Amino acid sequence: MPRPPAAIRPLRRLMFLLPLLLLPAAPVLAQFAGAGRGGPSEVGVVSLEQADAPYLVTLPGRAVAHDQTEIRPRVEGIVEEILFPAGGRVAAGELLFRLDSETYEVALIAAEASLASAEATRTAAQATVDRYTRLNGVGVTQSDLDGATASLAQAEAGVKSAEASLRSARLNLERTEIRSPIDGIADLAQVSEGTLVTANQSAALTSVTRIDPIFVDVQESSARMLRIRKRWEEGSLTRLDEMQIDLQLETGDAYEGPGRLVSPRAEVSTTTGTVDFRIEFDNPDRVILPGQFLRVTMSLGTTRAILVPQRATSRGSDGSLTAFIARDGKAEQVVLSASGSWRNAWIVTDGVAAGDLLIVDGLRSLRAGAEVKAIPVTIDENGLVRDTPAATE
User: Fold this and answer.
1) What is the bridge-based pairing of β-strands 345-350 and 330-342?
2) Nearest by Cα to 267 from 216, 225, 215, 300
3) Who contacts 387 (Cβ-Cβ below 8 Å, separation ≥6)?
4) 83/316 Cα distance (integer angstroms)
C-alpha cells in the first residue's frame, strides 16, 4: 500500500490525538457549568448591635524611680566596714557604712569635759552674785555686784557654747555610722574598706533607689486633650467616675495591677506641644526597673457605638475602611467611619446601623452585588468564627 503524501501525515496525527486532548477538559467544563447553576454563596453573618465601648488612649512612657538618693559621708574618716548586700533591700535607718570613730570619741570626751568646766564656772559665778546681792551696801558696792552679774552672764554663755560643742561632737560621732535615709535597693559600693573619705565629697559611696511603688512618666498631646474635653462637654463621650490605667511591659505582656494618676504638669512643652503626666504603679516584685520604656493605656470614658469585628473589614488603596453586609439576598459593600478599636473590633460611628447583618465568613472572592445566603454565626473573644446552635441543627 502506498504511503500518503508528507503533507497529509501531520493532519492524520492531529485527528488521532484530538479525542485524547478533549478528555480532561470535559470534567472541567462541567464544573464551570455546574458553578453557574449553584445558586447564592453561603456566608456567615452576625447581627450588629450598639454597645458602650471604652475610649482608650495608649501612650509610650518611661519608668522613673519613686525616690533615689546618693549616699555621701558627712565627716572624714577611714571606711572600716561595708554592711549591706549590693542589690539587696535596705530599710530607712539601716547601717550601710561604718567609719573609724576613735578621733570623734576623743572629741566627744573633750567636749563633755569642757561642758562640765563651764557649768562649774557658772555655779561659782551664780554663788558670787547671790552673796553680793545679800551684802549689797554692807561691804559690797553696787559696782562689785554689777561685775559679779557680768561674770555670771559670761559663764552662762560659756555653758551654752560648751553644750553646742558637745552636740556637734555627738553628731560627728553618730555620722561615722552612715545609714540609709529611705527604703529601697542599694547599689554597688563605690569604695572599699580602708578607703579615706571626706565630708561632703563629690563622689557618692553608693546610692539607694526606691522602686516600690514606681513612677511611669508619659506625654500626651495638648491638642488631643482639648478634643477629648470637647467630646465630654458635647456628651459624645461619657466620663468615667475613676480613670482606669493599665500598663504593658516591654515584652508585650500586660502588667498586673492598676495605675494611679499622680499629677499632670501645669504647662505645655514649647518644643513638643505635649503635657507630662506621672502615673504610679505598685512594684513589689521589682518587675519594673527605672529607665524601662513601657506603654500605658488610659481609659478616658465610654462611647455609644457599633462594634465591627476587624476580621470582617478591609482597607482600600485610599485608606478607607470597608465591609460587606447582607441585604435582600445580596452582598452590599459599605464604607465605615471608626473612632478607634477595642479588643478585636473597630468602634464604628457611621456606615452601618444596629440590626445590619455583617458578613464575617465567606469573604474570599466576594464582590458587591453577589447573591448570598446568610448563615448566622458568632465570633468568640479570640476573633474566631463559631457556628450558632441554630446554624448547626
Assistant:
1) antiparallel
2) 225
3) 44, 375, 377, 378
4) 66
Distance, in Å, from the CA atom of 226 to the CA atom of 10, rounded to the nearest integer, reads 84
The region, left, alpha or beta by phi > 0 then psi within -120 to 50, assigned to residue 351 is left
Give, as one character, the DSSP assignment of residue 312.
Answer: G
Q: Is residue 243 part of a domain?
A: yes
Give me 390's grid cell: 441554630
Task: Say if residue 253 is in the same domain as residue 374.
Answer: yes
d(CA 355, CA 372): 18
For residues 236 and 297, membership in a common domain is answered with yes
Are 226 and 346 part of one and the same domain?
yes
Q: Are strands 41-47 and 372-379 parallel, antiparallel or unpaired?
A: parallel
Q: Are residues 296 and 317 in the same domain?
A: yes
How far, in whole angstroms, is CA 379 from its chain's centroid? 32
Q: What is the pLDDT of residues 92-121, one digit of tens each?
A: 999 999 999 999 999 999 999 999 999 999
The CA angle 312-316-318, to the nearest 5 degrees, is 150
Q: Say which residues have a Cβ less than 8 Å from residue 192's Cβ, sequence separation at least 6.
A: 79, 82
DSSP string, 316-335: -TTS-EEEEEEETTEEEEEE
Can you tell me the distance from the alpha carbon of 78 to that of 195, in angstroms, rounded to the nearest whole number? 6
Contact 324, 366 (CB under 8 A): yes
List alpha helices for 135-181, DSSP H.
142-174
Here the cell at position 325 is 453586609
Q: If you search the block for the grid coordinates 453557574, which residue do you land on?
A: 36
Last residue of a domain, one of 175, 198, 222: 175
List pLDDT tens digits, range 6-60.
Answer: 544 544 554 444 444 444 443 333 333 333 445 788 888 999 988 888 888 889 9
Q: Are residues 147 and 257 in the same domain?
A: no
Residues 6+ positions from 200 with CB-CB distance below 8 Å? 72, 73, 74
- Residue 280's domain spans which residues? 50-64+213-392
Say which CATH number the domain at 324 has.
2.40.30.170
- Does the reported pTM lie above 0.90? no
Domains: count for the chain: 3
